[in-house]
Amino acid sequence: MRYVSEYRDADLVRRVIEEIHQAVTKRWILMEICGGQTHSIVRHGIDKLLPDEIELVHGPGCPVCVTPLELIDKALAIASQPDVIFCSYGDMLRVPGSGSDLFSIRAQGGDVRVVYSPLDAVKLAKQNPDKQIVFFAIGFETTAPANVMSVLQAQSLGLSNYSILVSHVCVPPAIQAILSSKNNLVQGFLLAGHVCAVMGYWEYPPLSDKFQVPMAVMGFEPLDIVQGILAIVKLLESGSVKVENAYPRAITYEGNIPAQEIIKKVFVNCDRKWRGIGKIPMSGWCLRPEYDLFNAEKRFDVEQIKSVESPLCIAGQILQGLKKPIDCLAFGNECTPTHPLGATMVSSEGACAAYYQYGRGLDD
């Protein structure tokens, strides 16, 4: 359990929490980007242990949560077609579209399957040459290498019945969008360790300099999280504007160069819509034109589908750090994990799901 158990050591966490208390002299608003980090913070009650001067707000770091409604509707349209095997990670099956979800499509006879890797979907394409196999390729930079490899493997095998429905988004443009907003409240960013494991953190210093906001790369275990918070607090209190790596056991500045190169081979930057936020220029990846054969949107002619969000759901404001789940009138009432209005209540990394699972705001 080395590199795990010691990062869950309560005594070590308490010592770092005490350092944070001693370091803070002003009020600071910090945003953790990653939904997995949000769940860890809420699960372990870390936000309750911090000084009153520190407020944590939750950013758009849940790929399921930011997948736009119209892309969910495109997935539903494709999965409903005969001779299609639609493959996805499990947490996408209950994300509500305009009038249904992938579980409902499966209940109606659609062949919707949960896979654990896009390479499992490629294997299905090889085993079922009479079917069209579509993989729902969502995620931040973290999942991009595997999705790219599935396309390259299908190409090398000559599989003309495999395609991906792409919804890849990137963290740096989202941070820029948040910091550019006139409503921005965030004074420091806690960066997602798994994204930086792939991409490094070389993209962030220009953003930190441009907006004069310090950032720290943070891990996921309780000790990782409090060390990340301590690092950003020290930067803020000293007036230092830079990006600090508080997760050095897993992260390097340059990241995984081979993974970055393979991503560039298959994907190209493009504008992306983020659920509840809207379009952020050049904030995602799309397939390069030379890989159009593997583009499910083009293959199934669903590019023109447009959708409208529920007016009750404030997920967009939550994802920008402007509101918290308990500020939503529908939270725990019209919106629950069994009857979700938005993806932030469905996803295993969603902020609303975290608050609901751990009872935040339900008894207030």
Walkthrough of the structure:
By secondary structure, the chain is of the alpha/beta class. The protein folds into 2 domains: 1-312, HypD, alpha/beta domain 2 (Rossmann fold); 315-357, no CATH class. The protein is built from 17 helices and 11 strands. α7 (118-127) runs parallel beside α8 (144-156) and α8 crosses α13 (257-266). The radius of gyration is 21 Å and the shape is globular. The two termini are 38 Å apart. The mean pLDDT is 92.
Give a short synopsis of this structure.
The protein folds into 2 domains: 1-312, Rossmann fold (3-Layer(aba) Sandwich); 315-357, no CATH class. Helix content is 39%, strand content 19%. It has helices at 10-23, 35-43, 46-49, 63-66, 69-79, 102-107, 118-127, 144-156, 171-180, 193-199, 204-211, 222-238, 257-266, 296-299, 315-319, 343-346, 351-357, and strands spanning 28-34, 54-61, 84-88, 111-114, 132-139, 162-169, 188-192, 215-218, 243-245, 267-274, 278-287.
Q: Can you give the helix content as a percent range? A: 25-40%
| CATH C-level name of the largest domain | Alpha Beta
Distance between the termini: 38 Å
What's the CATH architecture of the largest domain?
A: 3-Layer(aba) Sandwich
Which structural category fits the helices and strands?
Answer: alpha/beta
What is the N-to-C order of secondary-structure elements (H for helix, E for strand)?
Answer: HEHHEHHEHEHEHEHEHHEHEHEEHHHH
Q: Assign the CATH superfamily of the largest domain.
A: HypD, alpha/beta domain 2
| Poorly predicted ranges | none
* Proportion of strand residues: 15-25%
Q: What is the mean pLDDT?
A: 92
